[in-house]
Design goal:
Blueprint (H helix, E strand, L loop, with lengths): L3 H14 L4 H8 L12 E6 L5 E9 L2 E9 L3 H13 L5 H5 L3 H8 L7 H23 L10
Helix pairs in contact: 2-3, 3-5, 3-6, 5-6
The structure holds FE2/S2 (inorganic) cluster (FES).
Length: 149
């Protein structure tokens, strides 16, 4: 027997399928790498022009990203971009991470509606900020003493 809650979920998913790719819906409903990270080597936070914020943490070993996580207060599309970008970066060097673009995220998600393309830019920019944070600490490790994340 289908409960009211399941019916409601199915209705929402059907509505989402009219607008978003299957990949976007999957990452939005079952986000990967969601949550902050203890002992991260890098952190980035950006609030986009729409007012949504994304935070990304990276764990780096030997210059290679071995784990990534994110948090956002944004919409379903923003959740899917955070989820996808934290999957895309695993196994990449920090210099490769710096080159991950809005278009790379859009391609991996099978696109986003015009009004949500900026969500992928927020994810790409936040990722870059985290990668730059890592590089800054490599140059001046003493700054870690002042880090809050
Ligand atoms: Fe603001 Fe997606 S709606 S980042």
């Amino acid at each position: 027997m289908i409960s009211g809650h399941q019916e409601y979920e199915a209705l929402i998913e059907a509505k989402m399928r009219q607008v978003y790719s299957g990949e976007v819906i999957d990452h939005a409903l079952h986000p990967k790498n969601l949550g902050d990270m203890k002992g991260a080597d890098a952190f980035g936070r950006i609030t986009g022009p729409c007012g949504d914020t994304m935070e990304i943490w990276l764990k780096v070993n030997g210059g290679v990203v071995i784990a990534a996580s994110f948090v956002t207060d944004g919409c379903a599309a923003t959740i899917s971009t955070g989820s996808m970008v934290t999957e895309l970066v695993k196994g990449k060097t920090v210099s490769e991470v710096l080159r991950v673009s809005q278009q790379d995220i859009l391609d991996a998600l099978g696109g986003l509606p015009e009004g949500n393309r900026h969500c992928a830019l927020l994810a790409a920019d936040t990722l870059k900020k985290a990668a730059k944070d890592y590089l800054a600490f490599q140059k001046e490790p003493w700054k870690r003493a002042y880090r809050k994340h």
